[in-house]
C-alpha cells in the first residue's frame, strides 16, 4: 500500500518562500492603475503654473470606465461613442471635478508615451470645458499635437 503524502508545497527544496519580483521603490512594482494615476497627476501639474488659481478648487479623479448613463446608444452615434473623461461644474457643496476614464484611454494608446500624451490632452480638454475656454488657451501646445 502506498503512503499518503501531505499536500504539495511550492517550497519543495527548502529554499523558503519567494520574495517580490521587484523592490517596491522601482517603477515596475507599481500597478497599471497607479501608473495611470501618476500620468493624470503629471498632466495636472503641467497646467498648474498658469492655472493654479482656477484649478485650486477642482477635484481630479480617475475611474476605470464611464458609467452606462454616459454611453451613447442608437443611430445618432458620434465618431467616439465612449467618452474619455468628463468635467462637472461646482454644484452647491460639491466642488468642480474632472474625471478621466482609464480603460478607454489605455485601449486607444499604443505605448506608454502615447498614453501620456492622450491623458494630457484629455485633461486639457476637460479643464477647458470646465473653464469655458478653448483647449489651445489652456495649453498652447495642444493644437500642435493634433
Quick structural summary:
The protein has five helices and three strands.
Q: Would you give an account of this structure?
A:
With 146 residues, the protein is mainly α. Helices cover 40% and strands 10% of the residues. It is built from five helices and three strands. Strands 1-3-2 form a three-stranded mixed beta sheet. β2 and β3 form a beta hairpin. α1 packs parallel to α3.
Q: Features of this protein?
A:
146 residues, 5 helices
Give the arrangement of secondary structure elements:
Blueprint: H1 32-55, E1 59-63, E2 85-88, E3 97-101, H2 102-108, H3 112-131, H4 135-138, H5 142-145
Parallel strand pairs: 1-3
Antiparallel strand pairs: 2-3
Helix pairs in contact: 1-3
Q: What is the overall shape?
A: elongated
Estimate the helix proportion, in percent: 40-55%
Q: Helix/strand-derived class?
A: mainly alpha
Q: How many runs of DSSP E, i.e. beta strands?
A: 3
Overall pLDDT, averaged? 85
The strand order across the widest sheet is 1-3-2
Number of discrete helical segments? 5
Order of helices and strands: HEEEHHHH
Biggest beta-sheet profile: 3 strands, mixed
The separation of the N and C termini measures: 75 Å
Segments where pLDDT lies below 50 for 5+ residues? none
Rg over CA atoms, rounded to whole Å, is 22 Å
- The fraction of residues assigned to DSSP E strands is 5-15%
Amino acid at each position: 500500500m502506498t503512503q499518503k503524502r501531505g499536500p504539495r508545497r511550492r517550497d519543495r527544496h527548502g529554499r523558503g518562500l519567494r520574495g517580490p519580483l521587484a523592490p517596491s521603490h522601482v517603477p515596475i512594482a507599481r500597478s497599471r492603475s497607479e501608473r495611470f494615476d501618476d500620468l493624470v497627476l503629471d498632466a495636472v501639474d503641467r497646467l498648474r503654473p498658469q492655472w493654479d488659481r482656477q484649478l485650486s478648487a477642482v477635484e481630479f479623479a480617475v475611474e476605470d470606465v464611464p458609467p452606462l448613463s454616459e454611453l451613447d446608444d442608437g443611430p445618432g452615434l458620434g465618431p467616439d461613442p465612449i467618452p474619455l473623461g468628463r468635467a462637472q461644474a461646482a454644484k452647491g457643496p460639491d466642488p468642480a471635478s474632472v474625471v478621466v476614464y482609464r480603460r478607454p484611454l489605455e485601449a486607444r494608446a499604443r505605448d506608454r508615451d502615447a498614453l501620456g500624451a492622450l491623458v494630457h490632452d484629455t485633461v486639457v480638454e476637460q479643464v477647458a470645458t470646465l473653464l469655458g475656454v478653448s483647449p489651445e488657451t489652456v495649453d498652447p501646445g495642444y493644437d500642435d499635437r493634433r
